[in-house]
TrEMBL record:
<protein>
    <submittedName>
        <fullName>Uncharacterized protein</fullName>
    </submittedName>
</protein>
<feature type="region of interest" description="Disordered">
    <location>
        <begin position="14"/>
        <end position="55"/>
    </location>
</feature>
<feature type="compositionally biased region" description="Polar residues">
    <location>
        <begin position="33"/>
        <end position="51"/>
    </location>
</feature>
<feature type="compositionally biased region" description="Basic and acidic residues">
    <location>
        <begin position="14"/>
        <end position="32"/>
    </location>
</feature>
Length: 286
């Protein structure tokens, strides 16, 4: 958005600039005009009604400049609000990339000193962590849907609605029936969403407990004749990094909801007439 071309877009500024040039010319010929002015000219001037100045022409350059500054701040706040989820998304991607590098290095260190039993447990835990990642994302998205009041489509599409013959039933009774339909639909959506979140939370809880039991039983001392103590700390470090990465990826999974929410808000914004009059470079809407 370029506001430096604003001055060339408004007629008020052009009028002010033209007035300044006219004043300079009038100073040079002011004495000549006063000396040569005749009575007939005076009569014409007095008979001709004075043209009233438009309110726009009375605006000073400083006032216009202040209005432009205010407009620029409003546009900046508008863009910042509508793109904050994009900024957060890219910051999270950078964090995930850094953690992935550390996680890969930690896995290499663990692989060098892991006992056979420790490595087998790692292989057993790997698909469970992948499944936990999916369940955790689903639960996280569902809780955000409740927070944003954006139920999934299979719940939102349920709508109890049928036509009532108002030629038989009076208007008040028909309206009461319509209100009952809306209330039934609302109650169903609330109960369905509650049950949906509870089911996802239970799945996530059971799988989390199972993973914790596996981590607790990870060999730390002797392991069938092998010294397991050196491999425990690298595995714990690797697992913590993996868990941190999966949680960040769960946060990434809700950005489409944030985007839909922002789009729903911006669809209600009406661009001011002033902005529309500034030209193509100043339009907030395509």
């Amino acid at each position: 958005i370029q506001l430096h071309t604003y001055w060339s877009q408004i007629p008020v500024y052009k009028k002010e600039k033209g007035k300044e040039k006219e004043k300079e010319k009038e100073k040079g010929r002011a004495t000549t005009d006063d000396a040569t002015q005749t009575d007939s000219n005076i009569e014409v001037n007095t008979s001709t009604p004075a043209t009233p100045k438009s309110p726009a022409a009375q605006l000073s350059i400083d006032t216009i400049h202040n209005k432009v500054d205010e407009l620029e701040k409003l546009i900046f706040q508008y863009l910042k609000h509508c793109t904050q989820h994009v900024k957060k998304m890219h910051e999270t991607r950078i964090q995930v990339a850094k953690i992935q590098m550390d996680e890969f290095k930690a896995l290499e260190d663990f692989e060098q000193i892991a006992t056979p039993s420790q490595w087998n447990i790692h292989l057993i835990l790997k698909p469970k962590m992948k499944l936990w990642s999916t369940k955790n994302k689903n639960y996280f998205v569902a809780t955000k849907r409740v927070e944003y009041d954006m139920p999934p489509r299979f719940i939102e599409k349920v709508d109890l609605s049928f036509k009532i013959d108002e030629s038989i039933i009076n208007q008040d009774e028909a309206q009461a029936t319509y209100n009952q339909m809306k209330q039934i639909t609302k109650d169903f959506r609330i109960q369905a969403m509650t049950l949906y979140v509870q089911s996802l939370a239970r799945e996530n809880e059971l799988l989390t407990d199972e993973i914790k039991r596996i981590i607790t039983g990870f060999p730390q001392d002797n392991d069938e004749g092998f010294d397991a103590e050196p491999g425990y700390a690298p595995f714990k470090h690797y697992h913590d990094l993996r868990e941190k990465r999966l949680k960040l990826e769960a946060e990434q999974s809700i950005y489409f909801l944030v985007q839909e929410r922002v789009e729903g808000e911006t669809n209600e914004v009406i661009t001011p007439t002033l902005v529309r009059s500034l030209g193509k470079d100043f339009l907030l809407q395509p």
